[in-house]
Design goal:
The mean pLDDT is about 95. Helices cover about 95% and strands about 0% of the residues. By secondary structure, it is mainly α. The longest helix is centred in the middle third of the chain and has 62 residues. About 0% of the residues are buried.
Length: about 70
């Protein structure tokens, strides 16, 4: 009976570790999802700025006299 109790205690400890790892991984996943969303937003904003700058440059180039 003592051997079975030991096995149950070890199993319980393994399950507790697994639950802790799951919770940690889940929290990290949520943090990474938020970070990814922030990076995507920043990337979209930079893409818009680059496009606006390219448009302005095109307008400026079109006003230059051809040589």
């Amino acid at each position: 009976m003592a051997s079975m109790d030991k096995e149950l205690i070890l199993l319980e400890e393994k399950i507790d570790r697994l639950i802790t790892l799951y919770r940690d991984t889940h929290a990290e996943n949520i943090r990474l999802q938020r970070q990814l969303a922030d990076v995507i937003t920043a990337n979209n904003q930079l893409t818009e700025k680059i496009q606006m700058a390219a448009n302005r440059l095109q307008v400026l180039l079109s006003t230059l006299p051809e040589s």
